Automatic annotation (TrEMBL):
Transmembrane segments: 76-100
One Pfam entry name: Ig_5
InterPro entries membership: CD3_esu/gsu/dsu, Ig-like_fold, Phos_immunorcpt_sig_ITAM
Gene3D superfamilies: Immunoglobulins
Subcellular location: Cell membrane
KW Cell membrane (keyword) present: yes
Entry keywords, A to Z: Cell membrane, Immunity, Immunoglobulin domain, Membrane, Receptor, Signal, Transmembrane, Transmembrane helix
Any one GO BP annotation for this protein: cell surface receptor signaling pathway
Protein name, UniProt field: T-cell surface glycoprotein CD3 epsilon chain
Signal peptide range: none
GO cellular component terms, A-Z: alpha-beta T cell receptor complex; external side of plasma membrane
Annotated membrane topology: Single-pass type I membrane protein
Length: 151
């Protein structure tokens, strides 16, 4: 069998002689003669197609093709061209991004939150919190009233 699908039209060519005089779809005989049978508005349902010279010499095909109304057919060359063009465009964008950002590698950002990259300014240590001052020698009497509690 040779099956050709275009949109929702399915064309079936019988493998037997040039002029098949018997065609049946799902067991129902069709009033069609010839080696080709055209199914208009095929609904993508499993179908049993039978063709041949007579009821005794037949060929059977179980057809389950997926069809759609708004499909576009692409050949292998078109698909290869689309994929190749996409790869070249992606590679071009990567090269452009690399060359535009190549010189910025050593520089810091110039945003408002950045600090100057000159000499580092030394800051004084933070002011200690008086509630958490360390115990110094001679000041133990301040903490003498604190005794460990037994649990």
């Amino acid at each position: 069998f040779l099956v050709e699908i275009s949109g929702t039209t399915v064309t079936i060519t019988c493998p037997s002689q040039e002029n098949s005089n018997y065609w049946a779809l799902d067991g129902t005989s069709q009033s069609h003669t010839g080696s080709k049978y055209v199914i208009e508005d095929y609904k993508s349902l499993p179908t049993k197609v039978t063709c041949g010279e007579s009821d005794t010499q037949i060929n059977e095909l179980h057809l389950h093709a997926r069809v759609c109304e708004n499909c576009e057919e692409l050949d292998a060359l078109a698909v290869t061209g689309i994929i190749t063009a996409d790869l070249f465009i992606t590679l071009g964008v990567l090269i452009l991004v690399y060359y535009f950002n190549k010189d910025r590698k050593g520089r810091g950002s110039t945003g408002s939150g950045s600090q100057p990259r000159g000499q580092k300014v030394q800051r004084p240590p933070p002011v200690p919190n008086p509630d958490y001052e360390p115990i110094r020698k001679g000041q133990r009497e301040v903490y003498a009233g604190l005794e460990s509690r037994g649990f």
